[in-house]
Amino acid sequence: MNSEDISSSDKRRLELPVAGMTCAACATRIEKVLHRLPGVEAEVNLAAERAVVRLSDAAVSGEKVLETITRAGFSVPRGEMQLSIVGMTCAACATRIEKVLNRMAGVEAQVNLATERALVRYQPGLADKSDIIDAIRKAGYDAIESGQADREAEKARKEAAYRQELRRFWIAAALTLPLLAQMPAMLGGGGHHDLLPRWLQLLLATPVQFWIGARFYRGAWSALRGGTANMDVLVALGTSIAYLFSLVVTLGGFEGQYVYFEASASIITLILMGKLLEARAKARTSAAIEALVSLQPAIARVERNGELVEVPVESLRQGDAFVIRSGDKVPVDGVVERGESAIDEAMLTGESVPVSKRVGDKVFAATLNGAGVLYCRATGVGSETLLAGIVRMVEAAQGSKAPVQRLADKVSAVFVPVVVSIAVLTLVLWWWLGGSFTPAMVNAVAVLVIACPCALGLATPTAIMVGTGQGARVGILVRNAEALELAEKVSVLAVDKTGTLTEGRPVLTDVCPSEGVGEEQLLALAAGLEKGSAHPIASAITGGASAREIRAIDIDDVQAVAGKGIVGTLDGDRVALGSPAFICETLGVAGPLGAELAEKARTVVAVSRGSMLVGLLGVADRLRPGAREAVERLKGAGVRVVMLTGDNALTAAAIARECGIEDYRAGVLPADKAEAVRTLAGEGLVGMAGDGINDAPALAAADVSFAIGTGADAAVEAADVTLVRNDLTGVYDAIELSRATLRKIRQNLFFAFIYNVLGIPLAAFGFLNPVVAGAAMAMSSVSVVTNSLLLRRWHRRRL
Questions:
Q1: Residue 413: CA atoms inside 13 Å, Cβ hemisphere, count?
Q2: pLDDT value at 171 more than 90
Q3: How many CB atoms lie within 10 A of CB 512?
């Protein structure tokens, strides 16, 4: 998706992905319509699904090319990339980069100060990767495309930068410590005496100001050149005023005037120390991601010529056979072909109880094998493993913005200009009212260095990072920060019955033939109608017949009646199977069938032949262990639980009673579940818990959707919150995690706002020494990040 010059001429080259092509005629069609544009040459590759377009006419733009392709019936999908941003120092920097990128045609960007990353979506043909990176560099920062393979390189780069900054800090500290002896006034001494010669103070302060502090000047210049202001502007301005004033006094020989070399040097040193502590704390916020990434083993064992051979995991391909020995970690996702064992899947689900594995069961990368040996075949490798999907999802959530952050972003955008204005006003008023420049200058400097936009910028993303990371540790995967914020507000939770409250594996429990009909005859007919169906109830019936060694009857013209049942033909008679209401309709009779079975929480299946009721079958789907306790916990958390089921009212009432659910909707067809969810919207924010695939319309209709226990890559993409554990308790845990995270965000925002609201007036009224102000500013960001880290103490409450 790169646009670049291909010669010294004025031609531009666009390389575009094209979706919707099915054959060579499609590629030819796109070439034809593009060649009709003046000065356009196009080559379309069907296999690669890409078009290379060369433009030589200034009248034809990228927009025109895209419009032409779209009008031909095809589309150019949007691209997406993650960028690691270098040079951001505060929230104003992140806001600046967002503005620059979002002004570009076809570009949408979100910049996260805490992760130092940008998520950029762009429209090929209107913008490309090199344009986006160039725009960031012109704004005064640097950007490096980031991906899974670049993780280690990025980590090494950050560690090297940290070590370099640490060395500079120790040098700055060594130069600043002697200057701190000049501060008896701050410590209550009541005067300002030169314990060191002024020429020595100048000698010590100068390298701190212009070598150690060069980063602040560079950052300030880049920000101002880009038409904005950030924290660097405040630090550079404040320390420069103190330093230059002291320089003039020293070189001018004004013996009766104070000098403030210790203030300028101390502020820089303390802020640098704060940045180092902040970097350490921020690194810990991404510990969950690092822990997940480090879980996957580096080698896999494959059997060749009867021997086990170790190969790099990267060399495995889908379909390759591999062996998991006792105590080994699973290298990639796969399916068991031979052997039995138990695997610890705690890294996926948070549950320490090993899961039994036998032929046909799935295994997942980075989980830990027990005592047995398993022979498996790879089904997901590299970026296609469940672990890689989890890492991608958590990273995306950590890089997204919660709605609650909008206020902080608005304040950050105008923060620095407002602070500079207050500092100028402080200088003018103190000088005018007090008649002396020195205290006016000192108080103005204190205003500049006490203000901290960083704390505002870090308040939300650091809490989101820790919260989503903690969720991933226990199998709660949050799609984005908005979903995490909304989850705490859920007041009504709609739950699908099958597979959510129940195990989703119904079994045949009751066989009730009509008078004159044998059990074998009833089951043979029912199994014959159901043998082509993959529905769980069909599996229960055919499985029950097989267990009784009853052979299914061959039935002709079998057809499914959506949401009702199945019909067919046997020896000229119409045969049917389905809900009691459907069979009553088929037979033309009134009155309920199977009421006694329904009252025992059985799903009732009726079977008819011609005008005769052949009999009734009872199918039961056992409640999940802990389902009732999970419902009680949700109710205790103020969430009203509503069960949705296609079962009849009697069966639904029995299941609801077992679970402790007061409100339920019976007879709800799959197509009607979404509407049922919408009808609950008037009662508050609605959540929906289902299996993530079959309940897709209902999940989409909810304000927050929870996909439960699907254990597949597709499930990671299915809902706002994916719960790896097959347990309704995960919904309660997700809501509690959301509430804990939002509490931290509100605390952080309160700390950040109150700090600035109190600190700036105190400095302006002369109650803060600049060095104290600098120290407070340095520690404000650290306190916000540290408070977010306290979320790591959150643990899922077990039943």
A1: 11
A2: yes
A3: 16
The residue annotated as part of the active site, out of 496, 695, 720, 733, is 496
Is the pLDDT at 230 greater than 70, yes or no?
Answer: yes
CA distance 186 to 776: 14
CB distance 107 to 129 below 8 Å:
no
Tell me the pLDDT tens digit for each residue of 713-743. 444 455 788 887 777 888 999 999 999 999 9
Q: Work out whether strand 640-644 and strand 663-665 pair parallel, antiparallel, or are unpaired.
A: parallel
CA dist., res. 237 & res. 449, Å (int):
9
**Strand (E) or helix (H) holding 227:** none
To the query of whether residue 496 is one of the catalytic residues in this protein, the response is yes
Give yes or no: residues 607 and 529 share one domain: yes
pLDDT in tens, 62-107: 788 888 888 888 888 888 888 888 888 777 788 888 889 998 888 9
* Residue in the structure block whose two tokens are 């009203």: 640
Last residue of a domain, one of 347, 381, 415: 381
Instruction: Give the whole-angstrom CA distance, residue 690 versus residue 482.
Output: 20
Domain count, the chain: 5
pTM for the predicted model, two decimal places: 0.71
- If you average pLDDT over every residue of the chain, what do you get? 82
Please name the amino acid found at residue 783. Answer: S
Tokens 């009224």 identify what position? 765
* Residue of higher predicted confidence among 762 and 390: 762
Q: Which helix (H) or strand (E) holds 83?
A: strand 79-86
Residue 729 has which token pair? 């308790």
Distances (CA, A) of 553 to 282, 438, 568: 66, 102, 11
Q: For residue 249, what is the DSSP state?
A: H
**Euclidean distance between CA atoms 58 and 39, whole angstroms:** 8
Q: Supply 195's token pair.
A: 């314990």
Q: Do residues 490 and 634 both lie within one domain?
A: yes
Write down which residue in 670, 699, 719 finishes a domain: 719
